[in-house]
């Protein structure tokens, strides 16, 4: 199979790397939601890569007087590990739903003052009272979506996790995520729940991945989409929104939830204990809940919005895109990851370590 070495197209460098390169441009002040000006200072945000609008940071500073220091992480495990032994100085973090529950149990999050979250009512009702955080005492939904396979249509048409885990057809042309979700997708392929507490099933998933390892080119920290569009791989295990971003740049790319199902996830905004500016954190969260602000973010990063009011500012083509807002038949095959207690979580972490070290 010929190896494609095409570089990233210039538009993607401008669009998807604006935050890292410091190229965000402030929006017109008159278009900003009017918030009470804060006392200034700095807000320390810790978020996923490619997960914010190009103007959001400058718009927030213009609206509140608060400067933003913005750091990136590549996995929930990385974020959790950095905060588990003491907050190094972050005011807002973006844990996935199972890590929200894990952090609540560990007393790592501050309760939210809902009186200051005046835009809370913009959320769709189904996101206002989740089982992992009843009443949204500690978290506010940011985005949701699925985990599946991104692929190049001219050379592949996967409908099963077998294409990544039990096939030699794409040897050396596959990337997977280097986090717990990799174990969970292997569990789904084997017919188990991705929330299993059975050590034998978790070990079986690790064994499957160790056998598949010679065919896997890279274990990535949420950057499989970059390898895919660069032509370094033809298949990658990734989040739907990340693949949707690169699909804009290359119409040969596509995304599918395999027939065995995928992960149904939610990422949330939360305030970790020990941060230097929890008041600014509340302003940040409420700012992001604004319908127009969040509509612009969702249009840019291409993940499904839990903010119902924001949909008025999201293109209809996105709202009607089944890769972004999947039909019920696809969602019914997916499973939500839940926190299973530290003893069981360590089984998943140890299984992943075993795979990466093999």
Task: Describe what this molecule looks like in 3D.
The protein has 358 residues and is an alpha/beta fold. The protein folds into two domains: 189 residues, D-Maltodextrin-Binding Protein, domain 2 (3-Layer(aba) Sandwich), CATH 3.40.190; 153 residues, D-Maltodextrin-Binding Protein, domain 2. Strands 4, 5, 6, 7, 8, 9 and 10 form a seven-stranded mixed β-sheet that branches. Strand 1, helix 3 and strand 2 form a beta-alpha-beta unit. Helix 7 crosses helix 8, helix 8 packs parallel to helix 15 and helix 9 runs parallel beside helix 10. The longest helix is centred in the last third of the chain and has 16 residues. The protein is globular and about 55 Å long.
Question: What's a quick, concise take on this entry?
Answer:
This protein has 358 residues and is of the alpha/beta class. Helices cover 36% and strands 16% of the residues.
- CATH class type of the largest domain: Alpha Beta
CATH-derived architecture of the largest domain: 3-Layer(aba) Sandwich
Tally of distinct domains:
2
* CA-CA gap between termini: 27 Å
How many H/I helices? 15
Strand count, sense and barrel status of the largest sheet are: 7 strands, mixed
C-alpha Rg (nearest Å): 20 Å
Oligomer: single chain
What is the number of strand segments?
10
Q: Estimate the strand proportion.
A: 15-25%
Please provide the ordered H/E string of secondary-structure elements. HHEHEHEHEHEHHEHEHEEHHHHEH
Structural class: alpha/beta
Low-confidence stretches: 1-39
Integer average pLDDT: 88
Helix content, binned percent: 25-40%
């Amino acid at each position: 199979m010929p190896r494609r070495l095409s570089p990233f197209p210039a538009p993607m460098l401008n669009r998807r790397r604006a935050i890292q390169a410091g190229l965000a441009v402030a929006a017109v002040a008159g278009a900003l939601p009017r918030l009470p000006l804060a006392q200034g200072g700095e807000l320390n945000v810790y978020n996923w890569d490619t997960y914010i609008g190009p103007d959001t940071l400058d718009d927030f500073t213009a609206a509140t007087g608060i400067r933003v220091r913005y750091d990136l992480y590549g996995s929930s495990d990385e974020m959790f590990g950095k905060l588990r032994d003491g907050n190094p100085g972050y005011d807002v973090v973006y844990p996935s739903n199972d890590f929200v529950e894990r952090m609540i149990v560990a007393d790592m999050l501050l309760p939210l003052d809902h009186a200051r979250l005046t835009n809370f009512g913009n959320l769709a009702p189904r996101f206002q009272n989740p089982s992992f955080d009843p009443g949204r005492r500690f978290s506010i939904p940011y985005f949701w979506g699925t985990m599946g396979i991104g692929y190049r249509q001219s050379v592949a048409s996967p409908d099963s996790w077998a294409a990544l885990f039990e096939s030699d057809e794409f040897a050396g042309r596959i990337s997977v995520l280097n986090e717990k979700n990799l174990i969970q997708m292997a569990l789904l392929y084997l017919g188990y729940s991705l929330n299993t507490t059975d050590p034998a099933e978790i070990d079986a998933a690790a064994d499957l991945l160790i056998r598949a390892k010679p065919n896997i080119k890279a274990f990535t920290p949420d950057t499989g989409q970059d390898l895919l569009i660069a032509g370094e791989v033809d298949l990658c295990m990734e989040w739907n929104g990340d693949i949707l971003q690169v699909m804009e740049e290359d119409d040969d790319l596509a995304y599918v939830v395999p027939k065995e199902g995928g992960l149904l996830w939610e990422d949330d905004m939360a305030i970790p204990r020990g941060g230097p500016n929890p008041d600014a954190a509340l302003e940040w969260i409420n700012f992001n809940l604004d319908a127009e602000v969040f509509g612009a973010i969702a249009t840019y990063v291409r993940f499904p919005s839990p903010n119902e009011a924001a949909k008025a500012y999201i293109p209809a083509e996105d709202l009607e895109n089944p890769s972004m807002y999947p039909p019920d038949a696809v969602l019914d095959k997916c499973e939500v990851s839940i926190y299973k207690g530290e003893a069981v979580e360590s089984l998943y972490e140890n299984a992943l370590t075993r795979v990466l070290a093999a």
